[in-house]
Design brief:
The chain has 112 residues and is an alpha+beta fold. Helices cover 59% and strands 12% of the residues.
């Protein structure tokens, strides 16, 4: 079995756009056709397709052609990788802040 890797930089860049985040939020409710995803946005279909291409390049979504309809699906794997990265960062900063808190309590009232 081949384990896929996800580039966090590419994922974060793809999610930096509000339109793409809204598409991801919508796909969190389930698969949707391209036309259904595009309906809430006031932009031309080619412009909307560029957003989908970026999301697909970042492996955040994948698409399947069913007859004449293109269906989009959310790929949750990159989010798991990001969640792990964020958890490591959170743990690191909590440790640092706890160490700073301990240092400040020890040195409270003392000249350094």
């Amino acid at each position: 079995m081949v384990k896929k890797t996800y580039n966090i930089d590419v994922v974060l860049q793809a999610l930096s756009d509000p339109t793409r985040r809204q598409v991801i939020e919508r796909l969190g409710m389930g698969p949707a056709s391209v036309s259904d995803l595009a309906a809430p946005f006031s932009m031309a279909m080619p412009s909307f397709m560029q957003h989908l291409d970026i999301l697909e390049s970042a492996q955040l979504i994948y698409t399947e052609k069913v007859g004449r309809v293109r269906i989009c699906y959310l790929n949750q794997n990159p989010f798991s990788v990001m969640e792990s990265w964020l958890q490591v960062q959170k743990s690191l900063w909590e440790t640092r802040l706890n160490q700073l808190d301990s240092f400040l309590l020890k040195t409270k009232g003392k000249k350094i």
